[in-house]
TrEMBL record:
Positions of the Acyltransferase domain: 2-76
Name this polypeptide is given: Acyltransferase 3 domain-containing protein
Spans through the membrane: 32-51, 57-78
Gene Ontology MF annotations: acyltransferase activity, transferring groups other than amino-acyl groups
Source organism of this protein record: Vibrio parahaemolyticus
Keyword Transmembrane helix (UniProt): yes
Upper taxonomic lineage: Bacteria, Pseudomonadati, Pseudomonadota, Gammaproteobacteria, Vibrionales
Source taxon at top rank: Bacteria
GO terms classed as biological process: lipopolysaccharide biosynthetic process
Keywords, alphabetical: Membrane, Transmembrane, Transmembrane helix
Cellular component GO terms, alphabetical: membrane
Stored InterPro entries: Acyl_transf_3_dom (IPR002656), Acyltransferase_3 (IPR050879)
Length: 84
Protein backbone atom coordinates (compact mmCIF):
# COMPACT_ATOMS: atom_id res chain seq x y z
CA UNK A 1 0.00 0.00 0.00
CA UNK A 2 2.96 2.39 0.40
CA UNK A 3 4.79 1.61 -2.83
CA UNK A 4 4.13 5.11 -4.12
CA UNK A 5 6.33 6.58 -1.38
CA UNK A 6 9.51 5.10 -2.84
CA UNK A 7 10.01 8.20 -4.98
CA UNK A 8 10.02 10.41 -1.91
CA UNK A 9 12.67 8.21 -0.32
CA UNK A 10 14.82 8.30 -3.45
CA UNK A 11 14.49 12.08 -3.76
CA UNK A 12 15.33 12.67 -0.11
CA UNK A 13 18.43 10.49 -0.36
CA UNK A 14 19.53 12.40 -3.44
CA UNK A 15 18.80 15.86 -2.04
CA UNK A 16 20.72 15.11 1.15
CA UNK A 17 23.78 13.40 -0.33
CA UNK A 18 24.43 15.26 -3.60
CA UNK A 19 24.60 18.85 -2.23
CA UNK A 20 26.98 17.72 0.50
CA UNK A 21 29.19 15.97 -2.06
CA UNK A 22 29.20 18.99 -4.34
CA UNK A 23 30.05 21.37 -1.49
CA UNK A 24 32.87 19.19 -0.25
CA UNK A 25 34.41 18.34 -3.60
CA UNK A 26 33.67 21.14 -6.06
CA UNK A 27 34.86 24.34 -4.39
CA UNK A 28 33.86 26.39 -7.43
CA UNK A 29 35.41 24.27 -10.14
CA UNK A 30 33.11 24.13 -13.18
CA UNK A 31 34.96 21.21 -14.74
CA UNK A 32 34.24 19.17 -11.64
CA UNK A 33 30.49 19.54 -12.12
CA UNK A 34 30.63 18.14 -15.64
CA UNK A 35 32.87 15.26 -14.56
CA UNK A 36 30.63 14.53 -11.60
CA UNK A 37 27.46 14.40 -13.67
CA UNK A 38 29.08 12.23 -16.34
CA UNK A 39 30.16 9.83 -13.59
CA UNK A 40 26.63 9.77 -12.15
CA UNK A 41 25.19 9.00 -15.58
CA UNK A 42 27.73 6.24 -16.19
CA UNK A 43 27.23 4.64 -12.77
CA UNK A 44 23.48 4.83 -13.15
CA UNK A 45 23.67 3.14 -16.54
CA UNK A 46 25.86 0.41 -15.06
CA UNK A 47 23.35 -0.09 -12.25
CA UNK A 48 20.55 -0.49 -14.78
CA UNK A 49 22.54 -3.00 -16.82
CA UNK A 50 23.61 -5.06 -13.81
CA UNK A 51 20.10 -5.16 -12.35
CA UNK A 52 18.33 -5.95 -15.61
CA UNK A 53 17.55 -9.47 -14.37
CA UNK A 54 15.59 -7.98 -11.45
CA UNK A 55 13.37 -5.20 -12.84
CA UNK A 56 11.75 -4.42 -9.49
CA UNK A 57 15.13 -3.81 -7.89
CA UNK A 58 16.24 -1.67 -10.83
CA UNK A 59 13.05 0.38 -10.67
CA UNK A 60 13.13 1.13 -6.95
CA UNK A 61 16.84 1.70 -6.27
CA UNK A 62 18.38 5.18 -6.23
CA UNK A 63 21.37 4.00 -8.25
CA UNK A 64 19.25 3.29 -11.31
CA UNK A 65 17.31 6.54 -10.90
CA UNK A 66 20.29 8.81 -10.31
CA UNK A 67 20.57 9.81 -13.97
CA UNK A 68 17.09 11.32 -13.91
CA UNK A 69 17.79 13.36 -10.81
CA UNK A 70 21.23 14.37 -12.10
CA UNK A 71 19.69 15.58 -15.36
CA UNK A 72 17.39 17.91 -13.45
CA UNK A 73 20.27 19.16 -11.32
CA UNK A 74 22.47 19.75 -14.34
CA UNK A 75 19.71 21.67 -16.10
CA UNK A 76 19.20 23.80 -12.99
CA UNK A 77 22.92 24.67 -12.94
CA UNK A 78 22.92 25.49 -16.66
CA UNK A 79 19.81 27.66 -16.37
CA UNK A 80 21.23 29.48 -13.36
CA UNK A 81 24.42 30.29 -15.24
CA UNK A 82 22.49 31.31 -18.37
CA UNK A 83 20.22 33.63 -16.35
CA UNK A 84 17.12 32.19 -18.02
Amino acid sequence: PLFHTWSLGVEEQYYIVIPLLLMLLARGKNAFYLTFFIAVFALSLMAIVYTSNDPDFAFYMIFSRAWELATGSLLALVMRKAQV
